[in-house]
Amino acid sequence: MSPKYRIVLEDIKQQLTNGKLAAGHKLPSIRQLSVTYNCSKNTIIKAYNELEKEHLIYTVPQKGYYVVNEFRRPEDHPEVIDFLSAGPDKTLLPYTEFQHCLNQAIEHYKEEIFTYTDQQGLPSLRTQISKNLQLSQVFTDPKQLVIVSGSQQAIHLLTSLSFPNNKKNILIEQPTYFGMIETLKLNDVNTFGIELSMDGIDLERLEFIFKNNEIKFFYVIPRFQNPLGHSYTNSEKKRIVELAAKYDVYIVEDDFLGELEQDKKADPFFAFDTSGRVIYIQSFSKVFLPGLRIASVVLPNNMIESFLRYKFSADFNSPVLSQGALDIYLKSGMYYSHLKKIKNTYFHKMNELKRVCEQLLPEGTHYTKPDSGFYLSIYLPPHVSAKKLTSLLRTQHLLLDDGERMFLPECNQDNLIRLCISQVEKHQIQPGIEKIAQAIRVLKDSRHFHQISLI
Questions:
Q1: CATH number of 94-333, picked from 3.40.50.1820, 3.40.640.10, 3.30.2350.10, 3.30.1360.120
Q2: Among 31, 99, 257, 304, which is least packed by CB within 10 angstroms?
Q3: Delimiting residues of CATH 3.40.640.10 domain(s) in the chain
Q4: CA angle 128, 259, 322 (to 5 degrees)
Q5: pLDDT digits (tens, 9 = 90+) for 283-342
Q6: Class of the CATH domain delimited by 337-454
């Protein structure tokens, strides 16, 4: 039989679930409930304390207990194999640890939280991030670092911003991160694409584009690229930086998964830059807490003032509570133990995905082979549509991305699907690939049958 406090707790949760207790509703007093349940006041206090820990109720001193929000029990759904979602593995999110940091941040930064603060970001956080970046071979002064509300904001601002080279066109890898493509569309920017495969890009083609097309900046994802999982070699990075300097092109380096790097000798583009043309973006969304909305941008000195002016027009400063809590989390050392755990998890998930792809994917199908990271892409056999495959698998409760939004319109061939391993559980990987392989065969066979019927 459950302890008495559990009975009280479950009864209150049931009232929250069925709507009898709504947000802001005052709960019965401890004395009233102790009479109702024929138990001690301590039993009721323990039940209320547990509900407070779950953030379902809160206390107003001298007034009583109130409902924070309605409670919802998990609903029964068929198991979904999610190769689509790209946030961090939910089982690895450090909720409890970060909650302590939030509480300390409220106390430590109470004056800054409720007023306007340094537009460039909390100085103490910028110092901590600059120390953290050294682990990724990015050595910079905190004065060159700006805190932004996620890497997407940095991309949007840089796309809009006038650069010192006074050029207008932007070059992107093909395929690439869909958020960058959407930003370019919304800003009506003249955009060039350069084909990327797991073998890299054609450096002669890159030089031709740099030389002849007035490129403002080249947007690159240096490691574990979205969607292919490609990583540039150090020699490729060095050569690309040299070409950028030669033709007065900036590089916007979106190193959002750089902290998952297993090779300690692998450096970012930034490490090879001697002319101040590499702008480095680091985000905490994929390896930590996406809702934190904190990223950092390392800028050349001659661009900081202009960048801050554009940022001011967007949101003045990024959330101060998030900045303060992250500052405390980094100082405590908890972030590094968290990072070690997720690096190991994603590395083993990716190895399992590659193993199963090698074993199960049908003839005519090819897949990328990233060392780690979130993403692996599958190139489908001729005449098998990524859109049709994605739609068919959705009816079987398997989610993935058909890749269309990751291409410029003139580059899309409807033959690429992207798999993300961050949300899928390791035991789901093999059955997931089995479903994908079977769906590819079904679409190939239906195409073949259709061709025969026309003869």
A1: 3.40.640.10
A2: 31
A3: 94-333
A4: 45
A5: 988 887 777 789 999 999 999 999 999 999 888 778 888 888 899 989 988 888 888 989
A6: alpha beta
| pLDDT tens-digit readout, 21-72 | 777 788 888 888 888 888 898 998 888 888 887 778 877 777 888 887 655 5
Read off the amino acid at residue 57.
Answer: I
Query: Hey, what are 122's tokens?
Result: 């909390």
Q: Where in the chain is the domain with CATH 1.10.10.10?
A: 4-67
